[in-house]
Amino acid sequence: MNIEHVVRIADLNARYADAIDTNRLEAWPDFLLKRRAYRVTTAENVAQGLPLSLMYATSQAMLRDRVTALREANVYEAQRYRHVIGTPLITAVENGALRARTSFMAARIMRTGDTMLFATGCYEDCVVDWADDARFARRPVILDSQQIDTLLAFHVRSTT
Length: 160
Description:
160 residues, alpha+beta, 23% helix, disordered C terminus
């Protein structure tokens, strides 16, 4: 583990959040490996060892379908998001993969200008191919709260 590992994951996190914050949702699935699942769960579920998820997809294709639904089928009030992401804490380097825990906060900005805290939590990342083209092999999103807005689709992250 070294500072290059931290910088590489911090850069991946920043580019990922920027894609969501600038409404480039079509780029979102590309940060994941093609056949990896994506899961959003709560800290309580993790503490109890429960497999329950608020969101779960098994591939990039499923995530692309979610983006298509957001663009073409869902009706919702105009809004934007802003992520604040902490410094990754490297927890392991194994078999060419980096494991890191990174805290986050996301604010939602409504068309009226009202800004509210949308979600807080952490990512439990597994990053592969980090020297060439880093991607998330796993990225569980572990939310601090048991309650989440119905528009969770905007704040999703990945895992297996």
